[in-house]
Amino acid sequence: MSNWVSLFSGGKDSSWALYRALEEGLDVSRLLTVHPAGDSYMYHTPATELAELAAESVGVDLVEVSPDDFGAADVDDAGAQGDAELEPMEAALREIAAADDLDLAGVTAGAVESEFQTDRIRGMCDRLGIDLFAPLWQRDPVELAEAMFDADFEIRIIQVAAYGLDESWLGRRYDADALDDLLALREEYGVHPLGEGGEFETYVVDGPHMDRRIDLTYDTVWEGDRGHIEVRDATLE
């Protein structure tokens, strides 16, 4: 049977790609989480340390790529850094296919609008001779958000960095009410309804693809015009 690897951060977009893949009957046998060392052009960065709990709840084996695998810290050009950041992911996929003797069919990805990320992931898939399942790609962001709500995803906002988003958003549930507020902020400040420009980051703590909800205890850290939650404890309910 052909196996799929889900590129997974635990955020809403990669979680939705995983969920849609499972709904389509794709045999997702691994989650692959990348832990960047710092700011990243390619990857969701906050709260990736929760991936192990999320994988346990989803019931799919997790493969993790650590910051030690990155060699892009001294690259100044964004394109070159994006290419360099992709290398450990591609190496991990080659190792998964080789070590486990899998028939690797493809990867899932949660890209919505970023051609920077998607072009690189497509190129990687071409080199590996595998397919890309990207169910969010170029879909209407409001329709995507509403689909997540309809599927009973419980999504929490864990980082904000945009005009109009203050400390009260940290830890807030991303739901229909939050979306209405974000659409008002889009009119005023240009905030993307899915946070596609890095305006906010999320984590999925429960959903139909998960057996147990992730319970978070956290502090909020506010830095004047941006902030994030700092997880103190996380458990499966």
From TrEMBL:
Lineage: Archaea, Methanobacteriati, Methanobacteriota, Stenosarchaea group, Halobacteria
Keyword Nucleotide-binding part of the UniProt annotation: yes
Diphthamide synthase domain boundaries: 5-234
Gene Ontology biological process terms from the UniProt entry: protein histidyl modification to diphthamide
CDD domains the record matches: AANH_PF0828-like (cd01994)
A family per Pfam: Diphthami_syn_2
Domain of life, source organism: Archaea
Database matches in PANTHER family: DIPHTHINE--AMMONIA LIGASE, DOMAIN OF UNKNOWN FUNCTION 71 DUF71 -CONTAINING PROTEIN
Record carries keyword ATP-binding: yes
Official protein name in the record: ATP-binding protein
Gene Ontology molecular function terms on file: ATP binding; diphthine-ammonia ligase activity
Organism, scientific name: Halorubrum ezzemoulense DSM 17463
